[in-house]
Each structure stands twice: as structure tokens, then as C-alpha cells.
Specification:
Length: 388
């Protein structure tokens, strides 16, 4: 099958490389430098499997900046462009998706689309009416930062938002690229598929919030968080996973998806969904207060990234902590090896780790690292299990 992929962030690039094992894939992006890197088999993202696939030619993908060429290539046009959450309108900004669809339909009226970008519940049904076509299918992704290709190769499930022969064909296509043999494939309707995505991520947000609030309680009461979590996790219904405290859920997906689901509840009774969103703000407030209680003049932020072995710090929770500290007049400095700027978020970036350690009264680390063991007395972290 011929597939064209539009948008080469984590989702798009992971899907392109997954499908490029067996399908004829052409991948498009508007950023010339990114395409040039990919053509040279260099990854613009920190993801071990993506780097491995590119450098060892495990997938055959043609990378291009020629939009029309990409449109004409694919039996299906897979859209993986960013859909940032708009806090003003309480909705995803889906304009990047619509731009691809409109321009593609002008070139090729019979074009068929697979949307991988996260969208509001009911979005695809509206698109079909707007553009007078049934050739739009939603298939949610369930990927982790730094593990995007791995999670495509070993997916927990494949969801296709169309219960039809072509829906089955698309499901088999994704399954063909997977290395896991027993992947469950669910064919459903587009609106249910959209809901699956938002409810899945909101449950993950709930789990993060739960263990963070457990940790807040233990810290205030002087209890051992690690022992409490270990005991709670021995119940097989709860399990000993996804339970490591943090500064709040962050990253590109969970904050926007939980807010979008809450917006979708505007005419539906609820308490829990709003609480999940509010809990994340409360956690950041608490963490900032704990740091401020040490009365530091200068706080060092060790890594902006959410997770170990990642270069992605879009909407990372630690940025919320920085905002709160700066509002109280504390100087904030940053150690982030992936940054080339001298300043970020109006804070000085320190490139030398030794200088960073000396200049910081308190070092804040969402995730610990062995290179901080010599300054443990300065560290504030809630990373108990050293697990992302």
C-alpha cells in the first residue's frame, strides 16, 4: 500500500518508519532542515528506536518538502500535525489538520485521510459534513515521549475509527508493521475512537494525580511515601506500575487531553474529570511551596525534560514550578544540555554542570540522575523509583 505522512513530529515520524517496513511511504514536513536531516538518516528527535531505524535502514521512507508530490503518492494520507489546546476557546486548535485536508482535496478530490492527531470528540463527523466526503478516518495513537516508535512496534492496541472493510484494511496495515504478534484491533465509529483517546489519557492523568496526592499527604505528615505506594501496589487490581511521584503530569498529551475531555463534559454531569485537571495545578503549587520553604536565593532547574532520555520539554510540569518560583522573586537558572539558547523562559541557561551546581542553592529535578549524587543535600525531587 502507498502511504503519505504529513507532519514529522514524534507521531508522524514513528508512523512513517513503522509503515515503511512493508508499505511504500512518503513523508512530508514544512521544515526544510528536518527533511534534510532525515534524508541524511539523522533523527531530529531523541528516540533510540527512531535513530536505530534511520541509521540501519530498517525502514524505507522517502522524505520530501513537496506537498503536491506527497498528496499524489498515497492511497491514504496520514495526518500527524500538531493540535495544541486553546485555553481561551477550551478546544483543540485543529487548523493544521484542516489546512492539510483543504489543500489536498484541491489537488486530489478523491483523497482518503487517516488522522492520527488528537482531536475533540465528534470532530471527524463534523469534517465529513464540512468537506462533503466520507474519506476521513480517525485512528488514535498511544505513544510515550522517547518511546514513540517502540510503542508503535509493540502497541497495546490498534484502534480504527471506522467499522468497515477499509477500516479492517487499515488495521491490518498497522498490525503488519508491528513486531508484537497478538495486537488487538478494534474497529469502531469515529466519535467513539476520539473518546477512547481522550478517556485513555485522562485515566493516565488520574493515576499520576492520585500518586502525586498520596505523596503530598505523606510529605506533609512526615510519612514514607515509598512504603505506602509499595503496599498499595501489592493489590493486583492497582498494580506496581505508573506510580512514581512527579511534579505533575505534563508533556504534550496529558495536559491538553484532560482539558479537552473536561470541555467535552460542558453539558454532562461530572466531578472527577474537573478534579483531575485541578489536581495538577494543586500539585505544582505544593511543590513550589516546598522549594520556597528552603528559602533559596537561586534555584537550579536540572533538565526541562519530563522524562529521562528525552529531548522533549513541551509543556513540561517543571516549567509550571519555574513560573511559581519566579513570581516569588527567586532567581531561576537552568541546566538543559539540549538547549542552545543562553536564556529560556527569561532564565539563564548554565551549560557547565559544575558551575550549575555551585550557583544553585536548591537543585530541582523531576527525575534524578547519577550525576547529581555529589550534591544530594541540595536536591529537591520526588523521584522515588527512578522510573519514568
Amino acid at each position: 500500500m502507498k502511504i503519505s505522512v504529513f507532519g514529522l513530529g514524534y507521531v508522524g515520524l514513528a508512523n512513517a518508519l513503522l509503515l515503511g517496513q512493508h508499505e511504500a511511504v512518503m513523508a512530508y514536513d514544512i521544515v526544510d532542515d528536518k527533511i534534510e536531516m532525515l534524508q541524511e538518516k539523522r533523527s531530529p528527535l531523541v528516540d533510540a528506536d527512531i535513530i536505530d531505524f534511520l541509521t540501519h535502514d530498517k525502514s524505507q521512507v522517502e522524505f520530501t518538502t513537496d506537498f503536491e508530490k506527497a498528496v499524489m503518492h498515497g492511497d491514504y494520507l496520514l495526518i500527524a500535525t500538531p493540535t495544541d489546546y486553546d485555553d481561551v476557546h477550551n478546544f483543540f486548535d485543529t487548523s493544521s489538520i484542516e489546512s492539510v485536508i483543504e489543500k489536498a482535496l484541491n489537488i486530489r478530490p478523491d483523497a482518503r485521510f487517516i488522522i492520527k492527531s488528537t482531536v475533540p470528540v465528534g470532530y471527524v463527523q463534523g469534517l465529513k459534513v464540512t468537506y462533503q466526503t466520507d474519506n476521513i478516518i480517525f485512528s488514535p495513537e498511544f505513544l510515550r515521549e522517547g518511546k514513540a516508535l517502540y510503542d508503535n512496534l509493540y502497541p497495546s492496541r490498534i484502534i480504527i475509527g471506522e467499522d468497515s472493510q477499509r477500516g479492517q484494511e487499515i488495521g491490518e496495515m498497522f498490525k503488519r508493521g508491528a513486531l508484537r504478534q497478538d495486537v488487538p484491533v478494534l474497529l469502531t465509529h469515529s466519535t467513539e475512537a476520539e473518546a477512547i483517546k481522550l478517556f485513555s489519557n485522562t485515566y493516565l492523568g488520574l493515576r499520576v494525580a492520585y500518586f502525586n496526592e498520596l505523596d503530598t499527604y505523606a510529605e506533609v505528615k512526615g510519612l514514607d511515601t515509598q512504603q505506602i505506594i509499595a503496599g498499595v501496589g501489592l493489590d493486583p487490581r492497582i498494580g506496581n506500575h505508573y506510580n512514581n511521584p512527579s511534579f505533575g503530569y505534563g508533556g504534550y498529551c496529558l495536559p491538553k487531553d484532560t482539558k479537552q475531555l473536561k470541555a467535552n463534559y460542558s453539558d454532562v454531569p461530572e466531578n472527577l474529570i474537573s478534579a483531575i485537571v485541578a489536581s495538577n495545578t494543586t500539585r505544582k503549587d505544593f511543590v513550589a511551596e516546598q522549594i520556597l520553604a528552603r528559602q533559596p536565593k537561586t534555584v537550579g532547574i536540572y533538565r526541562l525534560t519530563m522524562k529521562t532520555n528525552s529531548d522533549n520539554f513541551r509543556h513540561s510540569s517543571i516549567q509550571g514550578i519555574m513560573k511559581r518560583l519566579k513570581a516569588k522573586g527567586v532567581e531561576v537558572i537552568i541546566y538543559e544540555p539540549t538547549l542552545n539558547e543562553k536564556t529560556f523562559f527569561n532564565s539563564r541557561v548554565v551549560v557547565d554542570l559544575s558551575d550549575f551546581k555551585i550557583a544553585s542553592d536548591v537543585i530541582v529535578a523531576n527525575r534524578m540522575d547519577s550525576e547529581l549524587v555529589d550534591v544530594l543535600e541540595k536536591i529537591y525531587t520526588r523521584d522515588l523509583f527512578h522510573d519514568n
